[in-house]
Amino acid sequence: MRAVAGLMVGTIVGVTGVGGGALMTPLLVLMFGVAPQTAVGTDLLYASITKMFGVAVHHNHGTVDWGVVGRLAMGSLPAAAVTLAWMHFNDGHQIKSGFIITAVAVALVITALGMLMKDYLHRVGRSLRVADESYFKNLQLPITVLAGVILGVLVTLTSIGAGALGTVMLVYLYPLRLNSSKLVGTDLAHAIPLALIAGVGHLTLGNVNYSLLLNLLMGSIPGVLIGSYISTRAPLKLIRYAIAIVLGLVAIKMFTV
Fold first, then answer.
1. Maximum CA extent, the chain
2. What is the pTM of this model?
């Protein structure tokens, strides 16, 4: 069943490019009864390994903007390290499951809203970029670093946000620089080191289930390949809205756990 869950989530990630952590962590907690901290830690390593297959393809096709990746990483990687240090200081094993579940639920709500507003934010970003180019470009660097900080904290605590929320942020911040292919490739390239650092940090806290990780990978890798094939034929906007609604419903369930 866990391999099937990996196949399902991997397929959705392959189709849309987003939703891995947002779907997998709640699935592990609600359906399989995995402890929240273990679900987060295992999902982070699962995501970093799975996405490596995709970023190599994007790099070969020139669809990764490494400059933008570097700007995000300037904020996200230090933020992840600080968050992990805080977890170590407070003893990750002693952090209450209720806190993590609430954090996951909040992250799901933010991600769902971001997915629903993606097109609107792209139009706003494009309008501002065209109306006052110099002002907008001067703010791009500090705001991108700040976006990275937010992602670093959120992903380390919940494993959610590196894909879906990161894409939404980039749509607003780089409406002309990143086309759809570069948007996915750039977000994917940034998500890997962030998920890997956060995942290794959770590993040192004992928050990784190795057998669970292996089962998820067995399903997710073929799932990503299947999803990538489907993506050329699927109504992506409709699927994105459907996933956002599902995430909202899952968030409500997480708040009541």
1. 53
2. 0.85
